[in-house]
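Collaborator request, handled under Task 6.
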Amino acid sequence: MSKIELAVFDMAGTTIDEDNVVYKTVQKVINDKGFDVSLEQVLEYGAGKEKLQAIKDVLTACTEAKNITEIAESAFANFKTALKQAYEELDVKTFAGVKELMESLRAEKIFVVLNTGYDKKTATSLLAKLDWKVGEDMDGLVTADDVINGRPHPDMIQKAMDICGIKDSSKVLKAGDSTIDIEEGKNANCGLTIGVLSGAQTEAQLKVAQPDYILNSLAELKGVLLPA
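Structure tokens returned to the collaborator:
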């Protein structure tokens, strides 16, 4: 394995604990259209994706809806408003040991970039709640707004590499809590892909994407990358 020079971490469910509020909001705006999808279905078919795409995929997989694009766009418009309200009321925190992991990696000259299927505004509001700042707590932030193609395409990881001046994808690690994070990492030819069990999907679901490691939480990555 090449020495890892860049770690790209998903946000919600991986570095940030927001109690699945985004997917609960996706569930709400879909069901407000007269459907009855479960949170488990939303997590299975929507986790890690740009949120309009997530709504479309949940509707396609879990309902008999015919005019999916029209329903999805209407639900997505409601989603933005509902999520803003949910976030204003939400206590956002990070998972135990994650901030320390990020500090340890950066002390070892490993770049840390967060990436997310959220838009820039949502991602920035999450970081603000944690008082995390790009340039101080991490080396970059890449959102769905920054690329043409969202996950599982490699665009966000390639953007992170550009930010940090990394040319060789075998020196990049991608970690996330959903299969689409792992697929994104593999499509970018990352040297390591890591699944974590702190967020959207189960071990059985993550195993489908064949990550190199499945960890209980991102904090355990320190033992993999920086063994004592």
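The cover message to the collaborator said: "The mean pLDDT is 94. Strands lie at 6-10, 16-17, 93-94, 111-115, 140-142, 172-176, 192-196, 213-215. Please let us know whether this matches your experimental observations."
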